[in-house]
């Protein structure tokens, strides 16, 4: 695993086209804008039918909006595929048909393997050799530029491709290079992870109400507690277990609370949630791969 930093200058003068204008696309556009990269790179956006969405993005960010896919794709150095998994089989071949032979494909499509994308591209292109493809898995925290984003590259990708990908993804959080066989695990852990945390916050807030706090106060206390604990973990060189044990005095209040969590299978439930989410990512990926073979 590599935690990488990015050289923003590698995007200077490049044309970057977003295929799809949903929340992940907007988060990336926002990140590139806030880090200043949109001043030296050209950001293009297109989607299938929602022109009102394009106009909203154009009014908010320094982008070039396209209602025509061909116009958006023709001069792109980097194509960022931000469509839903159910749409990738119809959209990617259209994109590839008009793309430059040396374009870099960066996919945030959940479950779609590099090999599936390669087959979709080469089914309509015979002049691009082995296409340069990067598959990535951000999470929803990219909206506040705090995503834990994993990515993997096709064998055809170059060090220049990697530098460009890191610059884009680093604009919305921290970036980790992994092998493709681990991306489903990343989906189950970090991709779904924010939802697990939100669920925990819901439960902890309700618990605060159960012991007499009003909901607003309980929620505020939970958020600050979570924020402080996360900062402690990042700032400290000690393990989570060490930090936990330090505040868990035998016979004390935290000891009683942790014992109750253990009694009700807290750790088992969390681990099983990640395992099941990973399995589901594998199942959905297999369905996508089967559709490519049809």
Write a structural description.
By secondary structure, this protein is α/β, with parallel strands linked by helices. The protein has a domain of 177 residues: NAD(P)-binding Rossmann-like Domain (Rossmann fold), CATH 3.40.50.720. 52% of the residues lie in helices and 15% in strands. The chain has a nine-stranded mixed sheet, with helices on both faces. Strand 3, helix 2 and strand 4 form a beta-alpha-beta unit. The longest helix has 28 residues. The chain is elongated, with a radius of gyration of 22 Å. The N terminus is likely disordered. Catalyzes the reduction of 1-pyrroline-5-carboxylate (PCA) to L-proline.
Secondary structure: elements and pairs:
Layout: E1 2-4, E2 15-19, H1 23-34, E3 42-46, H2 51-60, E4 63-66, H3 69-73, E5 78-81, H4 88-98, E6 104-107, H5 114-122, E7 132-137, E8 147-153, H6 159-170, E9 173-177, H7 183-191, H8 193-210, H9 215-235, H10 240-246, H11 253-263, H12 266-293
Parallel strand pairs: 2-3, 2-5, 3-4, 5-6, 6-7, 8-9
Antiparallel strand pairs: 1-9, 7-8
Helix pairs in contact: 4-5, 7-12, 8-9
Entry keywords:
294 residues, alpha/beta, 9-stranded mixed β-sheet, elongated, disordered N terminus
Number of helices: 12
The CATH class of one domain is: Alpha Beta
Unreliable residue runs: 1-5
Question: What share of residues are in beta strands?
Answer: 5-15%
Distance between the termini: 35 Å
């Amino acid at each position: 695993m590599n935690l990488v930093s990015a050289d923003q200058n590698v995007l200077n003068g490049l044309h970057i086209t977003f295929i799809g204008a949903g929340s992940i696309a907007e988060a990336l556009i926002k990140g590139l804008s806030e880090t200043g990269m949109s001043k030296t790179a050209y950001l293009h956006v297109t989607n299938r039918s929602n022109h009102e969405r394009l106009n909203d993005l154009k009014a908010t960010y320094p982008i070039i909006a396209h209602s025509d896919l061909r116009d958006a794709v023709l001069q792109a150095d980097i194509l960022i595929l931000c469509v839903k998994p159910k749409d990738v089989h119809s959209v990617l071949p259209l994109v590839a048909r008009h793309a430059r032979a040396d374009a870099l494909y960066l996919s945030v499509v959940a479950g779609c393997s590099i090999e599936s994308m390669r087959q979709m591209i080469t089914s309509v292109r015979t002049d691009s050799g082995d296409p340069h493809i990067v598959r990535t898995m951000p999470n929803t925290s990219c909206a506040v530029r705090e995503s834990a984003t994993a990515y993997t590259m096709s064998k055809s990708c170059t060090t220049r491709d990697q530098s460009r990908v890191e610059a884009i993804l680093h604009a919305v959080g921290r970036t980790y290079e992994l092998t493709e066989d681990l991306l489903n695990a990343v989906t189950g852990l970090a991709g779904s992870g924010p939802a697990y945390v939100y669920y925990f916050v819901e439960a902890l807030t309700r618990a605060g109400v159960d012991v007499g706090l009003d909901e607003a106060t309980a929620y505020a206390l939970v958020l600050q507690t979570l924020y402080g604990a996360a900062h402690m973990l990042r700032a400290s060189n000690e393990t989570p277990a060490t930090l936990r044990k330090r505040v868990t005095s035998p016979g004390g209040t935290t000891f009683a609370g942790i014992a109750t969590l253990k009694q009700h299978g807290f750790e088992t439930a969390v681990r099983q949630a990640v395992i099941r989410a990973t399995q589901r990512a594998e199942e959905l990926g297999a369905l996508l791969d089967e559709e490519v073979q049809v």
